[in-house]
């Protein structure tokens, strides 16, 4: 398991899951909050990845 | 007055015990307080995240006081509780810096520990009736 995007997705899933369960009590709110956070993680990773694209690291 | 003091001491002792249990076994605090679904999710998700970190060749950092970042990472690693000591006893967590997934493994291990500490604080809040 060496796929960068797969590991990133797995990490985002676990963090979003735990934060959603801590922050919200209602199941529907947990799902909504967790999904938003998960999507935010993935979107920000892709955006940051593209922003760093021009830099020759 | 003495009766109140004794009751407060009992309450404090119970809270300490609850926090210790919540730290040692992820989710145990919530299970103890009757929040079964939350407790079960923590009980499964956090040790699984920790195990994935070990499988990705992450390192369980030593308490090296000369390197304060390493020391902070060690504190975060211990945050997961019993799984940390079990992994150490079984010889896992030596880390392989040559592995492609080394940094990801570290991130999983450290964040699993920090999330468990957050779960302990949440259990404490629930016990005090704040949530």
Keywords:
heterodimer; A: 57 residues; mainly alpha; 0% strand; B: 131 residues; 71% helix
- Tally of individual helices of chain B: 6
- Give the tally of β-strands of chain A: 0
Helix fraction bin of chain B: over 70%
Instruction: Work out the strand percent of chain B.
Output: under 5%
Biggest β-sheet strands, sense, barrel of chain B? none
Kindly provide the radius of gyration of chain A, computed on alpha-carbon positions and rounded to a whole number of angstroms: 14 Å
Task: Decide which structural class fits the backbone of chain B.
Answer: mainly alpha
Strand pairing plus helix content of chain A: what structural class? mainly alpha
Look at the structure and give the mean pLDDT of chain A. Answer: 93
Please state roughly what percent of the residues of chain A sit in beta strands, choosing from under 5%, 5-15%, 15-25%, 25-35%, 35-45% or over 45%.
under 5%
Tell me the span between the first and last alpha carbons of chain B. Answer: 29 Å
Number of domains of chain A: 1
Largest sheet of chain A: none
The stretches of 5 or more residues of chain A where confidence is low (pLDDT under 50) are none
Number of domains of chain B: 1
Q: Can you characterise this structure?
A:
Chain A has one domain. In chain A, 79% of the residues lie in helices and 0% in strands. Chain A contains two helices and no strands. Chain B is built from six helices and no strands. At the A-B interface, helix 1 of A face helix 3 and helix 6 of B.
Task: Give the helices and strands, then pairings.
The complex is a heterodimer of chains A (57) and B (131).
Chain A: H1 4-23, H2 27-51
Chain B: H1 2-24, H2 28-32, H3 36-55, H4 68-78, H5 82-89, H6 102-127
Helix pairs in contact in B: 1-6, 3-6, 4-6
């Amino acid at each position: 398991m060496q796929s960068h995007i797969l590991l990133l997705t797995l990490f985002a899933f676990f963090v979003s899951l735990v934060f959603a369960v801590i922050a919200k009590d209602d199941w529907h709110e947990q799902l909504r909050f967790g999904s938003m956070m998960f999507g935010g993680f993935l979107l920000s990773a892709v955006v940051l990845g593209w922003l760093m694209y021009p830099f020759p690291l | 007055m003495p009766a109140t003091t004794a009751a407060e001491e009992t309450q404090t002792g119970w809270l300490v015990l609850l926090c210790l249990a919540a730290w040692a076994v992820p989710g145990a605090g919530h299970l103890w307080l009757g929040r079964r679904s939350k407790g079960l999710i923590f009980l499964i998700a956090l040790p699984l995240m920790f195990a994935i970190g070990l499988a990705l060749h992450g390192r369980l950092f030593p308490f090296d006081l000369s390197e304060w970042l390493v020391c902070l990472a060690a504190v975060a690693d211990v945050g997961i509780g019993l799984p940390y000591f079990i992994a150490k006893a079984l010889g896992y967590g030596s880390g392989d810096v040559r592995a492609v997934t080394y940094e990801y493994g570290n991130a999983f291990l450290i964040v699993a520990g920090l999330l468990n500490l957050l779960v302990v604080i949440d259990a404490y809040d629930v016990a005090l009736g704040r949530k």
